[in-house]
Design a protein that fits this description.
The complex is a heterodimer of chains A (240) and B (119). Chain A is an all-alpha fold. Helix content of chain A is 84%, strand content 0%. Chain B is 75% helix and 0% strand. The chains are: A mainly alpha (240), B mainly alpha (119).
């Protein structure tokens, strides 16, 4: 027993622990997600995070120790954002022929999500740092962190809000679209990619190939539009 | 091998993006500048197959990449509980408003059936 405790103390302090735990938990959650037929409530990100949070809590592992291993996965978010160029390039003919519709929808959706978050948050009396961290929440986490920093928000919080927004969209969009009688997989996927970024797009890709393609396209468009426009707007408004 | 070469391209684009963003002081995230550089590079045929292989792997497992940040939500539990209910309300409402507006605008603008030949 003593030996086991020593072994655990050693293992849990190495990056190996965080990396292994993340991958094992995700693979298990993904398998369960597939078994439920991709039920929205079985979202693999949600259950992986819950399982890891419980594991860290039960073993008394501080987040920085976990992150020393998980950072290898986290790091891949940067190259993944660059990789969004590939689905954009593949669909460049469509992008060009429907450029106006795509740009207007992405702008309208992004503006609606951002302004309603800041507006409702302001009306409910949330402090300004929170509002600034919330503004880019519909953009994928690493980009949201960068934008929040530019706006004077808290990058870590921006990432948290982005992840939560992604999860809310991925888990509830099906019911919202069904209620709104929006059937087109392309429209559903595009809206998920625009509002709920990578986590929403991942859901769309698993459910329907058309929805996935448009979610990937929306994700790339949204990332570019938001990073170009938000700092400009903040600058124009004279904020910070 | 192709995927590995593709990762090298992606990282090179990202690095160049960071250099440009930080060097010029343009307030754009480095990876986004990298994405724009990649869009230019994809016009060259030798870049395409490797980038496609790497991008397909990365984007197929996109949701895994959000797990470390998601676990980090725990470290902000204090703040979350202080504003918990209001935060939840703001996040949920604004997400639904964003989804609904995007879908309605797109449907209004795309009257003709989309990409008819696709599965």
């Amino acid at each position: 027993m003593q030996q086991f405790v020593e072994l655990w103390v050693y293992l849990s302090a190495t990056p190996l622990f965080g990396l292994t735990a993340t991958l094992v938990a995700y693979v298990a959650a993904q398998a369960a997600y597939v078994r439920t037929g991709h039920a929205p409530w079985a979202n693999p990100v949600l259950w992986t995070v819950i399982a890891l949070a419980l594991l860290l809590g039960a073993s008394g592992t501080p987040y920085p120790v976990y992150f020393s291993g998980a950072q290898f996965i986290h790091f891949l978010l940067g190259p993944a954002v660059v990789a969004l160029g590939w689905p954009l390039w593949q669909r460049r003919a469509e992008l060009r022929s429907r450029a106006k519709a795509i740009a207007i929808a992405a702008l309208a959706g992004g503006a609606a999500a951002t302004s309603s978050a800041v507006g409702i948050g302001w009306a409910l009396g949330l402090p300004p740092e929170l509002l600034k961290s919330m503004a880019p929440k519909s953009v994928t986490a690493p980009v949201a962190m960068g934008i929040a920093e530019q706006l004077g928000g808290i990058p870590a919080l921006a990432a948290v809000f982005a992840v939560l927004t992604g999860l809310i969209g991925a888990m509830s969009a099906k019911y919202l679209f069904d209620a709104m009688r929006i059937a087109s997989p392309a429209v559903r996927g595009f809206a998920l990619g625009t509002t709920s970024h990578g986590i929403g797009a991942a859901r769309a890709m698993q459910v329907h190939p058309d929805a996935g393609a448009y979610a990937g396209l929306a994700l790339g468009v949204q990332v570019i539009l938001a990073s170009v426009l938000m700092p400009l707007i903040a600058w124009a408004v004279g904020d910070r | 091998m192709d995927a590995l070469r593709g990762v090298a391209w992606l990282l090179a684009c990202q690095s160049l993006g960071e250099i440009i963003a930080r060097g010029t002081g343009i307030p754009w995230p480095g990876p986004v500048v990298g994405l724009l550089i990649l869009l230019i590079l994809l016009n060259f045929r030798p870049v395409r197959a490797p980038v496609a292989a790497a991008a397909d792997v990365l984007l197929a497992h996109l949701s895994l990449l959000f797990v470390p940040v998601g676990v980090g939500v725990m470290t902000h539990l204090g703040l979350m509980s202080a504003y918990g209910l209001r935060l939840a309300l703001v996040l949920a409402l604004s997400t639904w408003i964003g989804l609904a507006v995007t879908a309605l605008v797109l449907r209004a603008l795309w009257r003709e059936p989309l990409a008819a030949g696709e599965p």
